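Run log, item B.
One chain of 170 residues. Sequence copied directly from the ordering sheet:
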Amino acid sequence: MNLSPQSVSLLVAGISCLTSPLFAANEATTDPVGFVTHTLASGGSVPSPKLSLISPTLVQPIEWQGVIKTISFAGNTTTITVNGNPWSANQFNGVAGSYYVELVPSTNPGAISDITATAAGVSPVDSSITTSDNLTGFGAIGDTIKIRKHVTIADMFGVNNSANLRSSDD
């Protein structure tokens, strides 16, 4: 079959109109989850050491997420209050480990600060967390906060050094 150049152009244009919805791009966004495996260099000696640069690349799961009821800064600490009693006293500080709060407002997202105190509310008092940074310029009433545990060396290699890491100056 012999087609004129105009017929070929019309045919290609018609096919591209039919197939373009098939190739429409969709986008999805999620918090990263999973793990990463690193292979560390072994052996080496003082005159010729082996070097492996590693760091945690993922964050811990969200321990708690909610909405700011009040946020204030006084005496070099920020206090963030949430409705009700969603956690226990000292749940996110002290012997429970090292935690941080992430502010997720519509503007200036991503401010984080270590949690220095956790107060549990008893009705009608609400629960609160305290940080050592001034977060009032980054969050406001109604903004979301996320609380996560810090990633530590013990998380990566075990509390009792199950990876058998040795001390060194390099």
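Observations after the first pass:
- Residues 121 and 139 are 21 Å apart (CA to CA).
- Strands lie at 62-67, 70-74, 77-82, 99-104, 112-119, 127-131, 144-149.
Flagged for discussion on Thursday.
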